[in-house]
Amino acid sequence: MASEPAITGHYTSGDLLARLNAALTDDGADPDHPTLEALAPYDQFHGRGLAATEELAGMLSISASDHILDVGSGIGGPARYFADRFGCRVTGIDLTAEFCEVARHLTGLTGLDDRISYEVGNALDMPFADGAFDGAYSMNVSMNIEDKTGLYLEIHRVLKSDAWLALSELAQGPGGEVEYPTPWSLTADASFLATPDETRERLEAAGFLVECLDDATEATLASGAQARAIVEAGGKPPHRAVGLIHGDLAPGMMKTMSRAVADGQLVPIEVICRKAR
Ligand SMILES: C[S@@+](CC[C@H](N)C(=O)[O-])C[C@H]1O[C@@H](n2cnc3c(N)ncnc32)[C@H](O)[C@@H]1O
Description:
Layout: H1 4-11, H2 16-26, H3 36-43, H4 49-58, E1 67-71, H5 77-86, E2 89-94, H6 97-109, E3 116-120, E4 133-139, H7 148-158, E5 159-172, H8 196-205, E6 208-215, H9 217-232, H10 241-246, H11 250-262, E7 266-275
Parallel strand pairs: 1-2, 1-4, 2-3, 4-5
Antiparallel strand pairs: 5-7, 6-7
Bound molecules: S-adenosylmethionine (SAM).
S-adenosylmethionine binds next to helix 1, helix 5 and strand 2.
């Protein structure tokens, strides 16, 4: 994989919280008492934002007694969504220390810190016991991880038997090489895209039964068109996480991404699988 400092350097700015607070203030929200709705444009750092999290969660059966793992938890938007919707406990793990600090801060402000905790760590070597979790999800993380079989084996290790794993990922499509920069990497050197078939094979090799692997291209293109229409009408883009995290680089990254999805270089996929053995 790309070195840990290369990945964390890509995501770290040192002033993320100050920039988030300024953005919330500009939206008319109170940065000291933000609601989950006010945070949603910023804390869902993946394609289609909150809609993708809602969709993934809607495919799962989760009870309040469950303990769920968020692999690559970012600044915690998906974790807060799952804990709030299902009343479950969530543990997030992420390589980027600044993201974990901001995630803890926002989770405290939204009153969910009794149910959610965040660890700074590598998804390839997690500090959790075997069979610790009832389910796990990961949203737009594996593009930074070369050893996908290692990733899926490590998630498999920390899940209880028959537990679920839900992924929302960007896969390599048939349309050729992706151009850079993208939100997860400035260059091809730190980007590791697997095709949907390779993703399935690696999950199965790690001991998962793939229950569904859906292509979310159409929904992603529709979401992009809707966002462009809002901006052309003078509004703020509905998904502002890439802008928050990458600042001036964000418009170029977003343009590359939407072109890559439209041209079939990138395929957004949603996968639900189960620990089968
Ligand atoms: C595009 S962000 C997605 C964040 C979050 N899943 C979300 O949807 O809001 C990718 C995240 O993956 C994390 N990441 C990348 N490689 C990782 C690894 N090996 N272990 C843990 N986290 C990793 C990054 O630090 C970053 O927070």
